Amino acid sequence: MLCDQHDDCPQPGDTVQLRSGNSIGAKATDTYVLVDDFPRTGRHFVLNLPTNHPAHDDWAAAVPLEEIAALTRLEPTGSRTWTPAPDPDQLQ
Question: Where is this region: Disordered (predicted)?
């Protein structure tokens, strides 16, 4: 159910870095992979550890959009990194 309306919406496979003080206690330098979202629970995003991490198969977490500091996406022309904007549909 991830957003597909424009290129800046989080998508599966994007790498994620979280803001300091996030709900899962991750360091701002830790990197995760975006897997899915839970829009019914207030737009939480499911993260996994990178595939080369030893605990990759045994770990997942869900965080709200406002805890994401940066998203990085690999594209045919290279990579790009941006800070996600709040979902316009949620700003009312």
Answer: 1-21
Q: How far is CA 39 from CA 24, 44, 46, 85, 87, in A?
A: 19, 7, 11, 16, 11
Apex CA 34: angle with CA 4 and CA 7, to 5°?
A: 30
List the structure tokens of 56. Answer: 């990759």
Residue 28 tokens read as: 């701002």
Query: Which among 80, 6, 79, 16 has a CA at the least distance from the CA of 44?
Result: 16
Residue 65 makes CB contacts below 8 A (sequence gap 6+) with 10, 43, 45, 84, 86, 87
- Give residue 91's pLDDT: 44
Residue indicated by tokens 């995003």: 45
Beta-bridge mates of residue 73:
80
Residue 32, amino acid: Y
